């Protein structure tokens, strides 16, 4: 089992535990806001299952039907998770509206508050772990899962603050009002997840700063060549695809140009990790004088 799958299994286990704690908190209090918090965690469980499936599929080696691998499965998982987040926001908004129309005072046992707060603390730690390792391993599924759980953390904070203010202010509609703000926050988070995941599926340009680093690495390791141009790159899950044209002196042998290509490929992999690199070698007349200069 690879490291990403281990984290995904951890997410599923933690989500189930947190769901049980938040459901207990809602049943003890009858709070609409706590109900919204528990409902969001239910989506976390479904999303964790989806991430597990996507990470397993993306780890499969390339085959005849998928010569570039199965890495985009992670983006599909993130898209599904974003869509679930949007549906969750709608369900919470409905409950908030019903609570606004028919306000009632939630019960306030300390056990319910304690359970919800403890669940939020567990989520905070796990969200930071997922985001950290998701970025390190370039896993869209883990990053999306961590960001989703982080929205759950902010939901818990808002819910607990609003829940505590109801008895202090005597304003019964504060409970569904907090739930309404939770729905808006989740809606915004879901949009962001969908936007980023669809961008990955559409092969949007990699971060400009990362592209600049790749161009620098090519420039510093292309000694003997004339220039590199038409540099293109995209990231699919944990794999970076890089392709460009390398212009060399017309009389250079194939062996010598191959040595330069090997040197560039080694340097690029040291920089980005797992990578698929395609270099098209061209003779000097093909130089465009607008590409990556050789240092």
From TrEMBL:
InterPro entries: Cation_efflux, Cation_efflux_CTD, Cation_efflux_CTD_sf, Cation_efflux_TM, Cation_efflux_TMD_sf, CDF_Transporter. The chain crosses the membrane at residues 7-29, 41-61, 73-93, 113-133, 153-171, 177-194. GO terms for cellular component: plasma membrane. It is a multi-pass membrane protein. Residues 209-284 form the Cation efflux protein cytoplasmic domain. Keywords: Membrane, Transmembrane, Transmembrane helix, Transport. SUPFAM superfamilies: Cation efflux protein cytoplasmic domain-like (SSF160240), Cation efflux protein transmembrane domain-like (SSF161111). GO terms for molecular function: cadmium ion transmembrane transporter activity; ferrous iron transmembrane transporter activity; zinc efflux antiporter activity. GO terms for biological process: intracellular zinc ion homeostasis. Residues 11-202 form the Cation efflux protein transmembrane domain. It comes from the Bacteria. It is found in: Membrane. Belongs to the cation diffusion facilitator (CDF) transporter (TC 2.A.4) family. PANTHER family: MITOCHONDRIAL METAL TRANSPORTER 1-RELATED. This is Cation transporter. It comes from Lichenicola cladoniae.
